[in-house]
Amino acid sequence: MSRDCSVVLFSGLRAVIARTIINKHNRAIKNNLESRDYFEELSTVPTPQQLALWEREISVAEVDRTNQPDAMDIMAPRIPKGQFISYSYFSDLPVRSANIG
Q1: Are 66 and 77 within 8 A, CB to CB?
Q2: Buried b (16+ CB within 10 A) or exposed e, 37-73
Q3: What's the confidence (pLDDT) of residue 85?
Q4: Residues of 8-23 as b/e, b for ≥16 C-beta within 10 angstroms?
Q5: Is 59 in contact with 75 (CB distance < 8 Å)?
Q6: Could you tell me how far CA 101 lies from the centroid of its own chain?
Q7: Domain map of the chain by residue range?
Q8: What is the distance between the alpha carbons of residues 59 and 93, in angstroms, rounded to a whole number?
Q9: What DSSP letter does each residue of 21-40 carry, written as one string?
Q10: What is the pLDDT along the chain (101 residues), one digit of tens a residue?
Q11: CB of 41 within 8 A of CB of 57?
Q12: Which stretches of 1-101 are DSSP H helices?
């Protein structure tokens, strides 16, 4: 392969790589915005007291997870599979962790 041919090949390859990286970057920005909007909306459904309880449960689980990995089970959904989530449902959620406070 001649030097001119390899220069053209590598410059074309660099262009493809650059386009791929730009596309991935743009997709990451879009996904980040969508995720942020989703999680901000998620925080508006429960009452402030329920949100505070949720944050405390997560904090306790994160502290305990090194010695007790099943502490992270707090992240599992509490809604039975196939049921619709309504605002009134959140007021009836059981508290999983008795040692929060």
Answers
A1: no
A2: eeeeeeeeebeeeeeebeeebeebbeebeeeeeebee
A3: 56
A4: eeeeeeeeeeeeeeee
A5: no
A6: 26
A7: 1-42, 46-101
A8: 18
A9: HHHHHHHHHHHHHHHHHHHH
A10: 556 666 666 677 888 888 999 999 999 999 998 888 888 887 777 788 888 888 898 899 889 988 988 888 877 766 666 655 555 555 555 545 444 44
A11: no
A12: 3-42, 48-64, 87-91
Amino acid identity for residue 53 in this structure: L
Residue whose tokens read 């660099």: 14
- CB distance 60 to 97 below 8 Å: yes
Q: Which of 62, 85, 90 is nearest to 74 (CA)?
A: 62
Helix (H, G, I), strand (E, B) or coil at 91: helix
3-state secondary structure of 66: coil
